[in-house]
Design brief:
39% helix, globular, binds 6-O-phosphono-beta-D-glucopyranose
Length: 494
């Protein structure tokens, strides 16, 4: 008998984006400047991708002095700021039930120290949210997706400075007050575990600005401040809107032991714990002993105020959301082993998996494995808020984009989600495909790393018409949503 892949009624199918990767209009509508506006395009190649994360005061000065034609891709995004109605109409055409977007703090407060918010920025998001509601699309809003206002780096020491918590809370309060009637699902910080991997975009931390301490000291402190801010935001939202649901968001990296050697298994376990422990704080409301031990063993200290423990306890999340793209392996000793790049990490290459053009190893079963692991650990409803394939798309002469590779990736991941729900008993709320419309890549800042079901005609240098063109995957996802995820029914239709 043919297997059918079922999903619960009301399952939230949709797509996800982030303000800094789509909006453009970096200096319009009263928007202040952000760190992302200062990240230059660097053609560093797949193996050297971590060089993108290197950012110094010198880079910052160059960005501030740059000529208008200099290549800072986040400044232009895909011009969603001017195309949002068309974009949301296309999402609605696919049948989206949910759309994950992020708000740019710098549009709500031109300068985070301002007393009054920027009404033009608020009006933009009200329009976006109304547009979603017009089509019955539920917005899922991230307060902070790698987009710190530049002032946090120049006039503060990023999230290392405790005052930033108050600035953030002023911003969060305005978001809840002005957008709360349109939004039921909120996320606080995107990928809370990322501070150690790319401190500049997560925490507005520029290493050369911390000559007085080990940089790790600044990172752990900044992380603590974000944890406190996140908990305060959860509590505030719950107080203002008792029916709203607020989630945390993690990078669901997944490492398999490279061999069955105990050393490789231990290394794998340690690697995974070093990612989970930040979500532990947001779910259980306290630091894991593992994290406290690590800080102590490194000879670092994290300044915590007496009320912080209570704040973390009172601000625990309602659900756990995560990004999932690929898996790789861990070995205690990596000398002589092939390595594979992944989502802001390198891992040992898994000989059983295929890789994308950017070296990320595709692994649909790893999604099922991850869902089970997360649900068993946290016992909270889960939400996949990012999953997708970055690929080079080619437009044919008749102006079409045939992307069977993306359809295949989607289909296999959806099958494994269904198995996790129906066979493993995982509580999964929804699924938002990352980059449902082509956008600027976070790690490579390329347009040519395309995730979308909708093609956007612009290249890595900003040349193009910005025209939106549905790809084959657009029509496939439309059918998939209409069938509530039953991909076997779609296959049978042919
Ligand atoms: C996630 C980020 O980790 O990965 C997104 O939240 C990012 O912002 C996505 O775009 C895909 O990564 P990349 O580097 O291919 O854009």
């Amino acid at each position: 008998m043919d297997q059918h892949y079922k999903f619960p009624e009301g399952f939230l199918w949709g797509g996800a984006t982030a303000a800094n990767q789509i909006e453009g209009a970096w200096n319009e509508g009263g928007k202040g400047m952000t760190i992302e506006d200062c990240l230059p395009y660097r053609d560093v190649g797949v193996a050297d991708f971590t060089k993108q994360f290197h950012f110094t005061t010198n880079d910052l000065e160059e960005a501030l002095a740059a000529e208008p034609e200099a290549n800072y891709p986040k400044r232009r995004g895909i011009q969603h700021y001017h195309h949002y109605q068309e974009d949301i109409r296309l999402f609605a055409e696919m049948g989206f039930k949910v759309y994950r977007l992020s708000i740019a703090w710098s549009r709500i407060f031109t300068d985070p120290r301002d007393e009054q918010p920027n009404e033009e920025g608020i009006a933009f998001y009200v329009n976006v949210l109304k547009e979603c509601k017009k089509y019955g699309i539920e917005p899922l809003v991230t307060l902070s997706h790698y987009d710190p206002p530049l002032v946090l780096a120049t006039d503060y020491r990023g999230w290392y400075s405790r005052e930033v918590i108050d600035l953030f809370m002023k911003y969060a309060r305005v978001c809840f007050e002005r957008f709360g009637s349109y939004v039921k699902y909120w996320l606080t910080f995107n990928e809370v575990d990322a501070m150690l991997r790319h401190p500049v975009t997560s925490g507005a931390l520029i290493e050369d600005r911390f000559p007085d301490m080990p940089f790790e000291q600044a990172i752990y402190q900044a992380m603590h401040h974000q944890m406190v801010a996140s908990a305060l935001a959860v509590k505030l939202c719950h107080n203002m809107y008792p029916d709203a649901l607020v989630g945390c968001m993690m990078t669901k990296l997944c490492f398999y032991p490279y061999t069955c050697k105990p050393e490789d298994n231990l290394a794998t376990q340690q690697r995974m714990r070093s990612i989970y422990r930040y979500v532990d704080i947001q779910v259980f409301g306290e630091y894991s002993l593992h994290l406290l031990k690590e800080i102590e063993n490194k000879g670092l200290t994290v300044q915590m105020q007496s009320e912080d423990g209570c704040i973390l306890k009172e601000g625990t999340v309602d659900f756990v959301s995560f990004s999932y793209y690929m898996t790789s392996c861990m070995a205690a000793k990596t000398e002589g082993l092939d390595m594979a790049p992944g989502n802001t990490v390198n891992g040992v290459k898994n000989p059983y998996l295929e890789s994308s053009e950017w070296g990320w190893q595709t692994d649909p079963i790893g999604l099922r494995y991850s869902l089970v692991e997360l649900y068993d650990r946290f016992r909270k409803p889960l939400f996949i808020v990012e999953n997708g394939l970055g690929a080079k798309d080619i437009m044919t002469e008749d102006g079409k984009i045939h992307d069977p590779y993306r359809i295949e990736y989607l289909r296999e991941h959806v099958k494994n989600m269904s198995l996790a729900i129906n066979e493993d008993g995982v509580d999964l709320m929804g699924y938002t495909w990352w980059g449902c419309i082509d956008l600027v890549s976070e790690s490579t800042r390329q347009m040519s790393k395309r995730y979308g079901f909708i093609y956007v005609d612009v290249d890595d240098y900003g040349n193009g018409t910005y025209k939106r063109i549905p790809k084959d995957s657009f029509y496939y996802y439309k059918k998939l949503i209409a069938a509530n995820g039953d991909v076997s029914a779609i296959d049978m239709e042919g």
